[in-house]
Amino acid sequence: MSIKIVSHEGLRCPMIFCDFCGDPIINKVGVYLYNAPTVKEPTDCYFAHKGECHDALEKKHNADSFQELYELPIRLLSNMSGKEDDLGEFIAIGLEKALGSSDIDGELSRHVLNQALAWHDRQHAE
Ligand SMILES: [Zn+2]
Predict the structure, then answer these.
(1) CA 97–ligand 1 middle distance (angstroms)
(2) Distance of CA 50 from the midpoint of ligand 1 (Å)
(3) Secondary structure (3-state) at 8
(4) Tens digit of each residue's pLDDT, the chain (126 residues)
(5) Residue 109's closest CA among 122, 119, 96?
(6) How far is the CA of 68 from the centre of ligand 1 (A)?
(7) For ligand 1, a single-atom ion, which residues have Cβ within 5 Å?
(8) How many CB atoms lie within 10 A of CB 48?
(9) Cα 58 to Cα 35: distance, rounded to the nearest angstrom
(10) Residue 63: what pLDDT?
């Protein structure tokens, strides 16, 4: 599982890297692969670009499942919140703390929130 912190224009940016080719995964063209876990044993999670990297990594690890990478953040937040019912509150607390600060993380959270709201509005306008 390759999440690294990248320095970009003075910012410290968490990014996901492809476990096959090693390049960062951007522009929403990634997946995460895994084998079904058992009740007792969690399984490893791998990241890949769609296409050749996905196919090669699937064969290498004999992975039987994958999900779109854009699904990962909300699934992680859901599991970190403890109960599914707490997810909204968990996200709201995180945004409130970020929006309440004047540091760069607050700016980033505002930007992300504005993008999410604009996307939501576009979906419901059509
Ligand atoms: Zn790749």
Answers:
(1) 34
(2) 8
(3) strand
(4) 689 999 988 888 889 999 999 999 988 799 999 999 988 999 999 999 999 999 999 999 999 999 999 888 878 877 776 665 566 666 666 666 666 655 555 566 666 667 767 777 777 776
(5) 96
(6) 14
(7) 18, 20-21, 49, 53
(8) 28
(9) 10
(10) 94
Residue positions counted in the chain:
126
Q: What is the distance in A from the centroid of ligand 1 to the CA of 115?
A: 26
**End-to-end alpha carbon distance in the chain:** 37
Q: How far is the CA of 59 from the centre of ligand 1 (A)?
A: 14
Q: Which of 79, 78, 96 is nearest to 87 (CA)?
A: 78
What distance in angstroms lies between residue 36's CA and the mean position of ligand 1's atoms?
A: 22
The 10 Å Cβ neighbour count of residue 85 is 9
Cα(107) to ligand 1 centroid in Å equals: 30
Q: What are the start-end ranges of the H helices in the chain?
A: 52-61, 72-80, 87-100, 104-125
Distance 56 CA to ligand 1 centre (A): 9
Are the beta carbons of 78 and 38 closer than 8 angstroms?
no
Nearest residue to 65 via CA among 79, 45, 50: 45
